[in-house]
Amino acid sequence: MAKGQVLVIACGAIARELVRIRDLNGWDHVRFQCLPAKLHNTPELIPGAVREMIERKRADYDALFVASGSQAQLVPDPPVTVANGELDAVAGNAPDG
Question: How many other CB atoms sit within 10 Å of the CB of residue 32?
Answer without folding.
Answer: 17
